[in-house]
Design a protein that fits this description.
It is a single chain. The protein is mostly helical and 478 residues long. The chain folds into three domains: 92 residues, Fumarase/aspartase (N-terminal domain) (Fumarase C, Chain B, domain 1); 229 residues, Fumarase C, Chain A, domain 2, CATH 1.20.200; 96 residues. 60% of the residues lie in helices and 4% in strands. Helix 3 packs antiparallel against helix 4, helix 3 packs across helix 9 and helix 8 packs parallel to helix 20. The protein is elongated and about 100 Å long. It binds arginine. The site of arginine has 10 residues, from helix 7.
Length: 478
């Protein structure tokens, strides 16, 4: 993670500091004001994007003749030097660096002198600047996360291939319903993740608009070239309306929703891992490297990762509500409230990145207890609907078939007689129908395209792999 270590040249209590906007004011802000309003601790993470935006802006200023070519070159060199210091962690932040924009401009001016550094902010405001920085950052990070989602999908796909025709009970209402292939169950999670990839990339497309040139809110009297700046920064287009450009944080709200829903998917996987790892289910054995112990109980092996994935999703959901609430009452255009966009976005991206990595390792390394799954799936009721559907094949209405089989199931439970015996003895069913109750037969009868049996799952795996390939290209892993 590109982080700048917190170095401040001044020690001791904070002095009243000089600000970019100091000219209008007789004094600097009170220390409490700086403490409350400064955003450097959060937004310094945007230093690469901030310098990229400033470099593009400087090139444009030189290209349109607002500054000379020599000034443009000096500015670019200075910005490159600032980048180097920040990347190396040698950059010294100072009291008065209220945000990353101020810090970069202040240092540039030290390096190049005020005649050059003092021209960087020509035709620009921190309002269009910060909007640009965050779009650049978000665009890159969301694509990287989408690629990481693909990694988890790949793990699920590989595990699905490995387990072949193994099956387990499928559940509704957490009651055993019908046997399904384990591969089918794993791929169900994989397909949900493919929608997350879609959503992240769709959000990136809406992020891919340059706000630079909008100024504080209305553009400028200078002959700026926002199209050129947009192209230089690799944006798909520039803003259409300067007021909208500095006010719009839709992409942040969307990204937070995408990440919350992705989190919900991971959380649901986490919940199943927790269940499956219990002695009661016993479907999964967690690898030592991906489980945790108890400080008191020597025998414990806990699925803490899966629980945290579930638990931290609460935060992700909270960020969506928080961001929308921040936005809902804002008049056009920029309001300082918008500074509250970064913390939730950074946190959501960080948390989802960590969750994907940890959960991916957990799923990749877990051992499946296939015998236990099979045993649970071969219970008496597993093939009940197959008996009814067999009767349908014999020409009976499904409702009548359902009534016959359900009364046999009840009989079997109440009189403690094996279902197979009752089926064999029933005039409409008999010996051929009994074969449906044999272990492992029911799951083979799930033949519907997209269904849970071996035929459709083999086909599904082909489609799944193809989808991963296509999405791999979409995230730049062609
Ligand atoms: N720290 C601010 C933010 O993140 C930068 C923009 C400040 N603009 C202003 N007019 N005070 O939104």
């Amino acid at each position: 993670m590109p982080e700048v270590p917190p170095r401040r040249s001044s020690s001791g209590p904070k002095k009243q500091s000089v600000r970019l906007w100091g000219g209008r004011f007789a004094s600097g802000p009170a220390p409490q004001v700086a403490d409350y309003t400064d955003s450097l601790a959060v937004d310094r993470r945007l230093y690469r994007e901030d310098i990229a935006g400033s470099t593009a802006h400087a090139r444009m200023l030189a290209a349109v003749g607002i500054i000379t070519a020599a000034e443009g070159r000096a500015m670019e060199r200075g910005l490159a030097a600032v980048l180097k210091e920040m990347a190396a962690g040698t950059f010294e932040f100072q009291a008065g660096d209220e945000d990353i924009h101020t810090a970069v401009e202040r240092r540039l001016t030290e390096l190049t002198g005020p005649d050059v550094g003092g021209k960087l902010h020509t035709g620009r405001s921190r309002n269009d600047q910060v909007a640009t920085d965050l779009r650049l950052w978000g665009r890159r990070e969301l694509v990287a996360l989408a690629a990481q989602v693909l990694d988890l999908q790949t793990v699920l796909g590989r595990r699905a291939e490995e387990v072949g025709d193994a099956y387990l009970p499928g559940y509704t209402h957490l009651q055993r319903a019908q046997p399904v292939l384990l591969a089918h169950h794993l791929l169900a999670h994989g397909w949900a993740l493919s929608r997350d990839v879609d959503r992240l990339l769709a959000t990136v497309a809406r992020m891919d608009v340059s706000p630079l040139g909008a100024g504080a809110l209305a553009g400028s009297s200078l002959d700026l070239g926002p199209d050129e700046v947009a192209a230089e920064l690799g944006f798909a287009s520039r803003f259409e309306n300067s007021l909208d450009a500095v006010s719009d944080r839709d992409h942040v709200a969307e990204a937070l929703f995408d990440l919350a829903l992705l989190g919900v998917h991971l959380s649901r996987m986490g919940e199943e891992i927790v269940l499956w790892a219990t002695e009661e289910f016993g479907f999964i054995r967690l690898d030592d490297a991906y489980s945790t112990g108890s400080s008191m109980l020597p025998q414990k092996k806990n699925p803490d990762i899966a629980e945290l994935v579930r638990g931290k999703t609460g935060r992700l959901v909270g960020h969506v509500a928080g961001m929308l609430t921040t936005l809902k009452g804002l008049p056009l255009s920029y309001n300082r409230d918008l500074q509250e966009d970064k913390e939730p976005l950074f946190d959501a991206v960080d948390q989802v990145r960590l969750a994907l990595a940890a959960l991916g390792g957990m799923v990749a390394s877990a051992g499946f207890d296939l015998a236990r799954m099979r045993q649970a799936a071969d219970g008496q009721g597993a093939a009940a609907v197959d008996l009814a559907e067999w009767l349908v094949g014999e020409g009976m209405a499904f409702r009548d078939a359902h009534t016959i089989v359900s009364s046999l199931v009840r009989d079997s439970i109440e009189r403690h007689v094996p279902l197979a015996e009752l089926v064999e003895a029933h005039p409409a069913l008999g010996g051929e129908a009994v074969r449906l109750l044999e272990a492992g037969v029911a799951v083979t009868r799930r033949t519907t395209p997209g269904g849970a049996g071996p035929g459709p799952v083999a086909e599904q795996l082909v489609r799944y792999r193809r989808r991963l390939e296509v999405d791999g290209e979409r995230v730049g892993r062609g």
